[in-house]
Specification:
about 300 residues, alpha/beta, Rossmann fold, 7-stranded parallel β-sheet, about 15% strand, globular
Length: about 300
């Protein structure tokens, strides 16, 4: 923003309601309940990273519970993604579709979003939740492991942001929620590259938030802490010396020890914040990255 210069009296007198953007203030919210403002009926949402057991499926359920039609996008297993979509349909009596694609490939990302748009009848919300992690000592990491992590934890999210604009900019509306990590703001051993990618997502969210709000597109982010989904819980129930098992438990413990809350979280707790940011209860929030980590990092 730079240094704010003191204005002259003439400059101040030149300001009226029009100059303050009053015509765009959502005055209709005054007489609505918060519950009404969080109604997403008629909205069409895409949730990436929704083919597994973690945050993606939780976000899909939360959005559907508020009335949205949801496309669950998985990486490879249509069967697993369809099973998650069936849970959403059964639990909330909502429209939920399953789509799979390779989001590290720009052309396939375009195909996925075109399919979601056609089957849902529009795109109003993107929950940008794709992720891939390479664990271990960075000094010993192979080029393939580096490419895997960067592609899965940064490039995929960037591609999705770019492709969804082809649908949101013409309609001059949309919500993009980028999922980063508290690791983008803190140190954890053996996941240096993942944390660096998530720091990049934080920066992307900030910048796109400022660039796109004039087009009616609201971009924000959420930085989860330690979420114990089924796979991570299993790692603690059945610990092994396998590197992925060990490093996963190490990262969880490192994060947990700094959490003021004194416990781990559920994906559904993080999904509550994600869902809120998609609603008309969050109409004056732009380019923010919200920590949702039990007080692990206090800014």
């Amino acid at each position: 923003m730079g240094i704010v210069k003191k204005k002259t009296k003439a400059e101040i007198d030149a300001y009226g309601l029009a100059e303050l953007g009053w015509d765009r203030v959502p005055t209709d919210i005054v007489e609505k309940s918060v519950t009404a403002l969080m109604d997403l009926k008629g909205k069409k949402a895409i949730v990436t990273g929704a083919g597994g057991y973690g945050l993606g499926q939780a976000c899909a359920n939360r959005l559907a519970s508020l009335g949205a039609d949801v496309a669950l996008v998985g990486h490879s297993s249509l069967e697993r993604t369809e099973a998650n979509a069936e849970v959403v349909r059964r639990r909330w009596n909502a429209k939920a579709i399953a789509v799979v694609g390779e989001l590290t490939d720009y052309a396939d990302t375009e195909r996925v979003f075109a399919e979601c748009h056609e089957r849902l009848g529009g795109i109003d919300i993107l929950i940008n939740n794709s992720v891939a992690v390479s664990v271990g000592d960075f000094a010993a990491m192979s080029p393939a492991a580096i490419d895997h992590c960067v592609a899965g934890s940064f490039t995929m999210l960037t591609y999705c942001c770019r492709v969804v604009l082809d649908y949101m900019m013409p309609q001059r509306s949309g919500r993009i929620i980028n999922i980063s990590s508290i690791g983008g703001r803190a140190y954890h051993p053996n996941i240096a590259l993942y944390n660096a990618c998530k720091a990049g997502v934080i920066g992307l969210t900030r910048t796109l938030g400022a660039e796109l709000i004039s087009h009616g597109i609201r971009v924000n982010g959420v930085c989860p802490g330690v979420m114990l989904h089924d796979n991570l819980r299993a790692a603690f129930e059945n610990p092994t010396d396998d590197p992925h098992n060990f490093y996963a438990r190490e990262a969880v413990i490192q994060g947990f020890e700094y959490a003021a809350e004194g416990r781990v979280s559920l994906p559904e707790e993080v999904a509550n914040m994600v869902a809120f940011l998609c609603t008309d209860a969050a109409t004056y929030i732009v380019g923010q990255n919200f920590n949702h980590a039990g007080g692990q990092v206090l800014l």
